[in-house]
Amino acid sequence: MPHGSVIPAIILIFSLFILKLCIASVASAGGGGNGINVWPKPRIMSWTTQPRANLLSPSFAISSPKHFYLSSAANRYLKLIKNEHHQPLVTPSLINITTSSSSALHTLFITVESLLTPLQHGVNETYTLSIPADASIANLTAHTVWGAMRGLETFSQLVWGKPNLLVASGLYVWDSPLFAHRGLILDTSRNYYGVDDILRTIKAMSFNKMNVFHWHITDSHSFPLVLPSEPDLAAKGSYGHDMQYSPDDVKKIVEFGLTHGVRVLPEIDSPGHTGSWAEAYPEIVTCANKFWWPAESNWTNRLASEPGTGHLNPLNPKTYKILKNVINDVVNLFPEAFYHAGADEIIPGCWKADSTIQSFLSNGGTLSQLLEKFVGSTLPYIVFFNRTVVYWEDVLLDDNVNVRPSFLPKEHTILQTWNNGPNNTKRIIDAGYRAIVSSSEFYYLDCGHGDFLGNDSQYDQLQPSSSANNGGSWCGPFKTWQTIYDYDITYGLSEEEAKMVLGGEVALWSEQADPKVLDVRLWPRTSAMAETLWSGNRDEETGIKRYAQATDRLNEWRYRMVSRGVGAEPIQPLWCLRNPGMCNTVH
Amino acid sequence: MVRSHTSISNVVALIFFLVLLIIPSVQSTTATTIDVWPKPRLLRWAPLHQLSLLSPSFTIASPYDHPHLSSAVSRYLTLIKTEHHLPSSVNNPLTATSSPPPPPSPPLQSLHIFIHRLHAPLHHGVNESYTLHVPNDRPTANLTAETPWGAMRGLETFSQLVWGRPSRVPVGVYVWDDPIFPHRGLLLDTSRNYYGVGDIMRTIYAMSANKMNVFHWHITDSPSFPLNLPSEPGLAAKGSYGDDMQYSPDDVKKIVEFGLDHGVRVIPEIDSPGHTGSWAEAYPEIVTCANMFWWPAESKGEDKLAAEPGTGQLNPLNPKTYQVFKNVISDVVKMFPEPFFHAGADEVTPGCWKTDPTIQSFLSNGGSLSQVLEKFVNETFPYIVSLNRTVIYWEDVLLDGVVKVDSSILDPKYTILQTWNNGPNNTKKIVDAGYRAIVSSADYYYLDCGHGGFLGNDSQYDQLVGSDTVSNGGSWCAPFKTWQTIYNYDITYGLSEEKATLVLGGEVALWSEQADPTVLDSRLWPRASAMAEALWSGNRDETGKKRYAEATDRLNEWRHRMVSRGIGAEPIQPLWCVRNPGMCNAVHASI
Questions:
Q1: Among A81-85, A537-541, B122-126, where is mean pLDDT lowest?
Q2: Given CA atoms B95, B99, B104, B110 in this order, what sign does their dihedral have?
Q3: I need a labelling partner for B130 at 20 to 30 A (CA). Which of A130, B1, B160, B491 fits?
Q4: What is residue B91's predicted lDDT score, i.e. its pLDDT?
Q5: Where are chain B's structural domains?
């Protein structure tokens, strides 16, 4: 027993000695501040004394109010904090390390004002974290349990060291997100992802203080969601029994989201992108299983915007019978108050392939009327379940097939933009709707990896021109983390208009993504949006874009995410981290 | 008890399988093919398209005492018996039965290997041809090869023919195969970021599955010097990223042996005189401009100290340079049996040498930078050649616009030049100058491109919103090279038949500014597979048309098989496309 305490003391003295040596060697390094960083950068993080670090007591505990989800989060963070032993690639250049174990930090005390506030859009995520110098207690105060979770994440990032844990001290953090909606879309229809892949993604989102997992569950390629009222949709429309999400899987994902402060927002795309429904109900889907763009036909006569055809038929009453069963089940499975109903990319050629629609059109009807019929029959039903409906912008802004605003009550409708950058955001706001920004020019994470179409003649070129431009895909080039970080989602809007922008979502469409590349496609680029939407992309004092100083911080954060089990891609050689500033460009 | 139980279950499985064969196919199969990647030069499957079960006691008979071949045989035997590959496509001709159902053949009992020249070493140009015959009337298949290395290629082909549970194999199959290009390589940069020995071995393993034969190991560069050398231990001790990010002599031995077991040569590159900043940690006196900011503010592009962050060039005017350098070469030659030695010589940057006072005075006395480089090459090239090595240099040594040597000091007999700039133009310049060429065109074969720049504080990103004008994904060699771009590249474009023989082959390259073990597999595969097929059997069909169109489905299938073999290759299409062959094609000229 006696040497049990002697050895740690020796290790401690030795490690502090090493630490001091390291400090001496990097103290002059500029750019990254003192090396104590939190991603996304808090709104206010100030030192009440000279920057210092305190020991984290081996018996450190988190005192949390009793709350089903917060208690779970507190346990999780306690484990992370005690086991992570993050070793910064650049040693924090602190002035003082408190070595006395008598003043080690023993407790993080959490106070929550309103324990009952549910996790929903606009919930208060503000927190303050105070870690006094040389004190044994730190305080985390938040309005809601969800804000407390954000503060726990911040605290976890302030702890490092091996074998002894150190925690930044003499520190005050006030934090609150600029945008309420900070999301990520994953498409689980084009390729399937296991439940664990989704859970790992939600976990990584919570590390980055993101709060909306937009689950694009179904599309033309597969229907992986098992619904109690419509079991055939998945039984026949999924990629196979091993590539489905059962109601229990969904429950697990939703609960996991709640313990991580991440809302799970389901999207059942319709009336387009529904080819997979035809496996169970061929009668309600037009143009299903056809070749997407027949030879000799014009682009305007294509049947789908990409391979995988099929639209729900708004003129068939059975369509609504099935769809209402689907909506009913989905609403039961997902407590989330937003429901994404899709409505993107209605392709005229697909509806025109149907004979009842043909006769409707030849009697003077229009495709837009068809869409209005569909929206008019479904939106009220969704709203009836106390859901706010999110649609893709196309429902209003598409050139050919769109509905009149009267079909989209503004209090129940949010439009998600993906085309034309800031222009369409403005059009949505100007029309009086709230907007979620997923501009494909900035936020689409799948772009730039070449096209997935087979036999594509753009690649068949005479030498020596490598002119398959932009990486070949429609939304190429690859969106770099800098492109994402620098995007101002309220660009060109008045202050009043900007309030209608709820936030943004990066998107991973899965034509060329599956579990093999999930983490590398998402991270750390998603972290770039997470910081911009949390605390902005500009220096608080100068107003200048701060991506330059963000590079070193993001690089460090990438390594920390990797050690936490998130396979984020590297953004620089290790050498750049070891030599801060040396990989910059000054031209 | 156990034994009889086993045989009963085999019989049941066999009966079940035969029933499967008799069930008429849902869809008639038109173009029935067997997919092997890279596609063999010649593959014939007798018109009945028969399948046999692979006998549970299937063996590979190789009567030869050859350690590397024996290792490969036992490896493939395990793979063949345990892989049970299930084609992703339910419409795969192998899983659907053709109509009328073919008569069953007896289970295949063994594969016999015949080799003519057992002791041919794994060198450039070694004969890799093989013939594989899986008859439909005997339970024995034959694999005949000139060399053990050709036999390994044939084993890979055979392994790809086997699929299903229970395992079955097409019979009545004859394959003749032989690579078009003898040099089919992959370059990995282990200096900018470190890769573990396991990562390198997995890469070599994946290369062998694609019949690639050269692992070009760009071991050292300015960011780190991970190679632990017995004569110069200070270089890695001080110049590596850390004790846990080095390659010991035992690691190298393991990698070289692993390469031999897989028919993959391991060519070391010790880049010099440029790209040597990491040497300065141990020997600051032999490195000019080390640890300086790469492109100082207010200076012009031509005064840069390095092509990218990480400065440092060996000083050709310091005699100690050669003392250290020769120790390095001597050690490397001992560690790597490979007769090719890559000596680098790319991107010699004038600004770096000009910071050194001795070089300054040499220049002010009428000397030129090219003379400085010639001095370096003259001191080192003959030494490497004296150790029985052919020297590979990057094309820059001859083609650089500013600093280059006279071709008279590079004997074409001992020199190969590797091209990376200007696509086919520089390949032509190299062969026109009489040198053999290895093609690594950055426009086609650089796998790291298109992931954005890695420089910090880069003003190209500071733009008004609304204009996403960082074109091409931001990095210097963007855009991302798609598998189609790689597949379609003709590395001998514009050369006469005579000159084309000087092109030894090609190498895809993964530079590691933005790559490390977390992304290694997804950056390499299946794009390296695209080059592997183009260099093995070409990128055109019998009619002379580019065959990337029909390659899509095959590559997709091969990607899924590589994933199940433990290689994290990235997806190229939704699974739906594999399940619905042809439906994801484009039939129009452009979109």
A1: A537-541
A2: negative
A3: B491
A4: 44
A5: 42-177, 239-453+473-544
Q: What is the pLDDT of residue A35?
A: 80
Q: Which amino acid is present at B227? A: L
Residue of B457, B470, B553 lying closest to A480 (CB–CB): B470
* % of residues, chain A, pLDDT over 70: 91
Q: What string of DSSP letters covers A206-223?
A: HHTT--EEEEEEE-SS--
Equal fold, B42-177 vs B239-453+473-544 = no
Show residues of chain A in contact with B512, CB under 8 Å.
Answer: 573
Chain B CB within 8 Å of residue A512 CB: yes
Number of alpha carbons in the 13 Å side-chain half-sphere of residue B126:
28
Mean pLDDT of A323-349: 98
pLDDT of residue B103: 57
Task: Say if residue A304's pLDDT is above 60.
Answer: yes
Say if residue A348's pLDDT is above 80.
yes
Contact A488 B482 (CB under 8 A): no
For chain B, percent of residues with pLDDT exceeding 70: 88
Provide the chain A residues 429-458 that lie in CB contact (below 8 A) with chain B.
441-442, 448-458
Instruction: Select from B461, B494, B574 the Cβ nearest to the Cβ of A511.
Output: B574
Query: Nearest-CA neighbor of A521 among A533, A536, A506?
Result: A506
* Encoded amino acid at A57, one letter: S
Interatomic CA distance for residues B445 and B508, integer angstroms: 5
Is a pLDDT exceeding 50 seen at residue B202? yes
Chain A residues in contact with B584 (beta carbon < 8 A): 292, 307, 452-454
Enumerate the active-site residues of A: 345
B518·A568 Cβ contact <8 A: yes
Residues 6+ positions from A438 with CB-CB distance below 8 Å:
A185, A416, A417, A418, A444, A504, A505, A506, A507
Please state the φ and ψ torsions of residue A118, each to the nearest 5 degrees: -75, 160
Interface contact B500, partner A, CB < 8 A: no
Q: Which among B301, B295, B280, B184 has a CA at the least distance from the CA of B238?
A: B280
Considering only residues 429 to 448 of chain B, which have any Cβ-Cβ distance to chain A shorter than 8 Å?
443-444
Q: What are phi and psi of A512, to 5 degrees?
A: -125, 35
Q: What is the least distance, in Å, from the CA of B385 to any CA of chain A? A: 33
State how far Cα A80 lies from the chain centre.
22
Residue in A with minimal Cα distance to B479? A471
User: Which of A496, A573, A541, A232 lies closest to B195 in space, CA to CA?
Assistant: A573
Please give the pLDDT value at position B27. Answer: 31
pLDDT mean across residues, chain B:
90
Q: What string of DSSP letters covers A104-173? A: -EEEEEEEES-TT--S-TT----EEEEE-TT-SEEEEEESSHHHHHHHHHHHHHTEE-SSS-EEEEEEEE
| Domain B239-453+473-544: assigned CATH number | 3.20.20.80
Q: CA-nearest residue of chain B to A570? A: B514
DSSP A458-482: GG---TT----GGGSSTT-S---HH
What is the ipTM metric for this complex?
0.89
What integer pLDDT is reported at residue B300 of this predicted model?
85
CA dist., res. B60 & res. B544, Å (int): 37
Q: Which fold has domain B42-177?
A: Chitobiase; domain 2 (3.30.379)
pLDDT tier, A469 (very low <50, low <70, confident <90, very high otherwise): low
d(CA A370, CA A385): 24
Report the C-alpha gap between B412 and B431 in whole angstroms.
Answer: 10
Contact by Cβ (8 Å): A433, A406? no
Nearest to B417 by CA among B400, B432, B435, B434: B435
Tokens for A254, please give them. Answer: 């939703």
Q: What tokens appear for A287 in the block?
A: 């143009």
